[in-house]
Write a structure and sequence with these properties.
Elements (H helix, E strand, L loop, with lengths): L24 H16 L16 E4 L2 E5 L12 H14 L7 H5 L2 H14 L3 E5 L2 H12 L5 E5 L4 H10 L2 E5 L4 H11 L6 E6 L11 H10 L3 E5 L14 H5 L8 E5 L9 E5 L1 H10 L1 H4 L6 H16 L2 H19 L12 E5 L3 H13 L2 E2 L1 E3 L10 E5 L6 H14 L1
Parallel strand pairs: 2-11, 4-5, 4-6, 6-7, 7-8
Antiparallel strand pairs: 1-2, 3-9, 8-9, 10-13, 12-13
The chain binds 4'-deoxy-4'-aminopyridoxal-5'-phosphate (PMP).
4'-deoxy-4'-aminopyridoxal-5'-phosphate (PMP) binds next to helix 5.
């Protein structure tokens, strides 16, 4: 009964390399990383379990630590109004909207959140997706096609790269924060493509530096292209009232074609948004696959972000405090001669230590001293620029920063 039927071809022999998961390149790479960690006596710095909400302080292994590893920039994750909004939405609408929004998942809270985002940007409309990553993948993947070109900063987030791959467009990167390098590409290639999309971020998460937005706007206008700005880290952080890089640089909302942001950082939730003109937002609402074919945002996720946005608007002093505390750290770190790269001192400040082993060891020793800061290792950054990356919250105190600087001094 085991013999093939007469006339059937024998199945081809296939190497185990193509069937066993433990022989796949990703797993092999993971094993290599683990064994070099063991050789250097460094514990895995990733997936540290936090037993609390993760703000200026957190609890790891039952111990309270000063925390520099969360994006809770405005300290709103545990704000009573934010929590209450989530509970009320959960009680009113249940735990899931159970369908995509076009089908039967639309709830009043979706429109309320989108109107508040659009109002904040003074734009015509906004749309929220269930994940920030999916927002970029779906928007870029849908809007661009094989006759189009995507030009992006070399440090752009993975979600833009995946969206670009999905779109089938040609993709080229330009030197980080360098409008001249972008212009060289536009000059050379603009004429050969239909749509051209330029993608930059408002604040870069590895370095805490920001682009000269007005120069990118001038280029997109000159070369008839679309400009998309990912405000994952700049919304709630840049500008006097936290309305992002547009506010900081005095660029009008309408001068950027596609504003993108996440709800997961300053807005204390989960999900992403696109805001811009109505034609853009309506198109995405009806056609972007990650919106159309995916469940609507749960009400208890939308409501806390709306509450967070309202608090941000009502209490701009949170943004002022975030700026103050980030600069307080950055200035003192520079005075000690540490390399903080090009950080503008707003919410994200790296301390570049020069090797992955040194960064991982420093992170482990700081944790022993009650300070949680994530190391950024090769290949996330070049080996020479491996770093400790500090994320600040408006809830950090000067005393916490002083303690951290002293510990860092000992460790480095
Ligand atoms: N864009 C940027 C620049 C990001 O840093 C991130 C995630 N950190 C995302 C998009 C994806 O957002 P989310 O984590 O909310 O899915």
């Amino acid at each position: 009964s085991e013999t093939p039927a007469a006339g059937a071809e024998a199945a081809p022999r296939v190497s185990e390399r193509f069937t066993r998961f433990d022989l796949q390149p990703g797993y092999q790479q993971l094993q290599m990383m683990r064994s070099s960690g063991e050789r250097l006596g460094i514990d895995d710095p990733f997936f540290r379990v936090h037993e609390s909400s993760g703000g200026a302080t957190t609890v790891i292994d039952g111990r309270e630590c000063i925390n520099f590893a969360s994006y809770n920039y405005l300290g709103l994750v545990h704000h009573p109004q934010v929590i209450r909004a989530g509970i009320e939405a959960l009680e009113r609408y249940g735990s899931s909207v159970s369908a995509s929004r076009p089908v039967s998942g639309e709830r009043p809270i979706h429109q309320a959140l989108e109107s508040a985002i659009a109002e904040c940007y003074a734009s015509e409309a906004a749309l929220v997706f269930v994940s920030g990553h999916a927002t970029n993948v779906s928007t870029i993947g849908y809007l661009l096609g094989p006759r189009d070109l995507i030009l992006h900063d070399e440090y752009i987030h993975n979600s833009t790269l995946v969206g670009a791959q999905l779109s089938g467009a040609r993709r080229m990167s330009f030197t980080h924060n360098d409008p001249q390098a972008l212009e060289a590409l536009l000059e050379r290639h603009r004429g050969q493509f239909e749509r051209v999309l330029i993608v930059i971020e408002g604040l870069y998460s590895m370095d805490g530096d920001a682009p000269a937005l007005e120069r990118f706007v001038a280029l997109k206008q000159r070369y008839s292209s679309w400009l998309m700005v990912d405000e994952a880290h700049s919304f709630g952080v840049l500008g006097e009232s936290g309305r992002g890089i547009g506010e900081m640089s005095g660029v009008a909302t309408q001068d950027v074609d596609i504003w993108m942001g996440t709800l997961s950082k300053s807005l204390a939730g989960c999900g992403g948004y696109i805001t811009g003109c109505r034609a853009l937002v309506d198109t995405l609402r009806y056609f972007a696959p990650g919106f159309l074919y995916s469940v609507g945002m749960p009400a208890q996720v939308a409501a806390p972000s709306l509450a967070a946005l309202q608090i941000m608007r009502a209490e701009p002093e949170r943004v002022t405090r975030l700026h103050h505390i980030s600069r307080y750290f950055a200035e003192r770190a520079r005075a000690k001669g540490w390399n903080t790269g090009d950080s503008i001192g707003a919410a994200i400040v790296p301390v570049i230590v020069g090797s992955s082993a040194k960064a991982a060891r420093a992170s482990a020793r700081l944790l022993e001293a009650g300070i949680n800061v994530q190391p950024i290792l090769h290949p996330a950054v070049p080996e020479k620029s491996a770093r400790l990356r500090f994320f600040f919250s408006c809830e950090h105190t000067e005393a916490q920063i002083d303690t951290t600087l002293e510990a860092l001094d000992r460790v480095l």
